[in-house]
């Protein structure tokens, strides 16, 4: 990727219409960010520490938790940095990195939700063949595939954005570097690239969503054929957490990238929900409705509390 730009850094103007609210936003966003990191780390510890949870479903949930740790970390540290009163400047390379990793992790999650839907489809529609179909080798290939195709999509979008010359204004009217706001600063006609980007950003989530819809249509048909009420309840309960997470993930994508007339304030609000709130809620969604995860999480918290108590006694003795 050649840097044809005379601009060496950009200035992040932040969230539109939030002047004089920096201190309050800093406290709120810092709390959300810390809670996101802690929640997803606890989910990882709960799954890794319990042999009962070493199944394909929880393997993919571990990968989702890793994505949910890094995804808000793309934009949140810099946002918290300038909300605390520090510099709003970001280097050209930093801006490129933000845009790449944001779309890399976002696309990876998109593919991952599709894989998780397929996993539930196999578990409910073909329970006797589940362990054969979702073998360790298949799970590893699917996990690597989500990151690989996420990397390809992010590389394409980043190259598309930064092949343009940036030679004039350098004030980014947003809280991080994303495609729509960066195209506004380019010193060239971006209409063709906007259409290509719109198709690319829209086509990938739409394709994944249709595959998820297909999986869950088959799942619903299979669940309705279950005779016992308890069996149907357990099957629906297993899928409800995943469906909730999918809705929380896809709604911001549609609102931000697929609306014909963008609104900076609405985009920023929805983007914050996507960057901070959804990754923060995912551990709650997957743990509150899952007895196995709650049980393992309780053991992890008890063990951590015991270790903290031991360290406190050693330091005070």
From TrEMBL:
SUPFAM superfamilies: Family A G protein-coupled receptor-like (SSF81321). Pfam families: 7tm_4. Residues 39-286 form the G-protein coupled receptors family 1 profile domain. One of its GO terms (cellular component) is plasma membrane. The chain crosses the membrane at residues 24-46, 58-80, 100-118, 138-156, 196-214, 235-258. The keyword Transmembrane applies. It is a multi-pass membrane protein. InterPro entries: GPCR_Rhodpsn (IPR000276), GPCR_Rhodpsn_7TM (IPR017452), Olfact_rcpt (IPR000725). Its main location: membrane. Keywords: Cell membrane, G-protein coupled receptor, Membrane, Olfaction, Receptor, Sensory transduction, Transducer, Transmembrane, Transmembrane helix. One of its GO terms (molecular function) is G protein-coupled receptor activity. It is found in: Cell membrane. CDD domains: 7tmA_OR10D-like (cd15228). Putative odorant or sperm cell receptor. This is Olfactory receptor 149-like. It comes from Panthera pardus. The lineage of its organism: Eukaryota, Metazoa, Chordata, Craniata, Vertebrata.
